[in-house]
Automatic annotation (TrEMBL):
A GO MF term: transaminase activity
Coiled-coil residues: none
Reaction equation(s) it catalyzes: L-aspartate + 2-oxoglutarate = oxaloacetate + L-glutamate
Originating organism: Mesorhizobium onobrychidis
Protein name: aspartate transaminase
Family, as annotated: Belongs to the class-I pyridoxal-phosphate-dependent aminotransferase family.
Length: 408
């Protein structure tokens, strides 16, 4: 009945986790929701003022398909500062969030049968969009290297069919920040093997403990002709619901994206465009600094709470705003007695026993992981992580009892 391509994908795992949390809350259960990939925050005053002014002026007409020229010029200046290279408006497209930017890239770059390398754990949408475009995701397990891919591992999976590699730093869900050496190595591989780099840097403003975000084109300017930069204001300005993203790429690719977007969504929301433009012109960085300060404090408080875990390693949380827990030491001892087999079981236990919603690593290609957001209000984070520690330490005690019973 449905098109065959619908068999290639399911609803986003993160969306499913949010839905489960909402269903429990609707049933009257008090839920601490640590699933969402967003920061709970008020609007930046410049965003609010820009949107209100657009409405007062009666702004309600189409803009150019890939965003107004004024906004693209402002974004080109922004990206030029961030990368240390000059970019022009015709090398940039404004989209309905980073997710549409990535979809546009998949549909304009990937041919049926092409392979795309995606390090795992990965954001659930990366492989889904490759499959929609007719490509094949090829995953590299990064769990043994701090969630950063080894260059040798990437080389081993490159074939004549390889078209691109996805680089997401700081990474969702792991929070890993790719070091300059790794990024330079990926850039060299792309040039040597004629590959595209799809560079998702949506979490770039949020790095911690001395880690630094490096745009790949800043480290290796020569890779610019085969790189697509994807970014958005969803994280950096806490504007997830406003859906303003953008991609930066060679102008031939931007022209193809413009043609595609003209047949899908056309231009992004015009009021949101004006709001972001006003912020880019009038913002002084104070809002972003406060947001970063708040996340830094939440991260530190969260790591302190998680230090009480008995068997689960404390996450590094180098960037972004997630704690990504490696549950392998907790899960492996239970494989023989059916207590738990994947992170799905622990996520279900957290929701049922503690009223805490998290995202299982199975959504990210990792059955031993658990993602918890610390973008929530501090009081919710404190309560939620205290409950998480209680449940996970309870699993540990249960494992020890099971071992003693088997020996007896």
């Amino acid at each position: 009945m449905l098109a065959q391509r619908t068999n290639l994908f399911r609803s986003s795992g993160t969306a499913a986790a949010r839905a489960a949390a909402k269903a429990a809350a609707d049933a009257g259960v008090e839920i601490v929701d640590l699933t969402a990939g967003e920061i709970w925050s008020d609007l930046a005053p410049t965003i609010r003022d820009g949107a209100i002014e657009a409405i007062r002026q009666g702004v309600n007409r189409y803009t150019d398909t890939i965003g107004s020229m004024e906004l693209r010029e402002a974004l080109a200046r922004k990206v030029s500062v961030e990368t240390g290279q000059l970019w022009r408006a015709d090398e940039l497209a404004v989209t309905n969030g980073a997710k549409q930017a990535l979809f546009n890239v998949a549909m304009t770059l990937i041919n049926p049968g092409d392979q795309v390398i995606i390090p795992a754990p990965y954001w659930t949408t990366f492989p889904a969009q490759v499959q929609i475009a007719g490509g094949t995701p090829v995953h590299i397990d990064t769990r043994g290297n701090g969630y950063v891919p080894r260059i040798d591992d990437i080389q081993r999976v490159i074939t004549p069919l390889t078209r691109a590699i996805v680089v997401n730093t700081p990474a969702n869900p792991s929070g890993a920040v790719y070091d300059a050496e790794t990024l330079s190595g990926i850039a060299q591989l792309a040039m040597d093997r004629d590959l595209w780099i799809i560079f998702d840097e949506c979490y770039g403003p949020f790095t911690h403990d001395g880690h630094r975000h490096h745009p790949v084109v800043s480290l290796t300017p020569e890779v610019r002709t085969r790189t697509v930069i994807v970014n958005a204001f969803s994280k950096s300005l806490a504007l997830t619901g406003w859906r303003v993203g953008y991609l930066v790429a060679p102008k031939e690719l931007i022209s193809a994206v413009k043609a595609l977007q003209s047949h899908t969504t056309s231009n992004p929301n015009v009021v949101a465009q004006h709001a972001v433009l006003h912020h880019l012109r009038e913002g002084d960085g104070a809002f972003e600094a406060r947001l970063k300060c708040r996340l830094t404090a939440a991260r530190q408080a969260g790591l302190t709470a998680l230090s009480e875990l008995q068997l689960v390693p404390i996450p590094e949380a180098q960037g972004g705003f997630y704690f990504y827990l490696d549950l392998s030491s907790l899960l492996r001892p239970t494989l023989a007695n059916d207590d738990a087999r994947t992170a799905d079981d622990i996520v279900a236990a957290l929701l049922a026993q503690a009223g805490v919603a998290g995202v299982s690593g199975t959504a990210f290609g990792d059955p031993m992981g658990l993602r918890l957001s610390y973008g929530v209000p501090p009081e919710q984070l404190e309560v939620g992580l205290e409950r998480v520690v209680g449940v996970l330490n309870g699993w540990n005690r249960k494992n020890r009892r099971s071992k003693r019973n088997r020996r007896a």
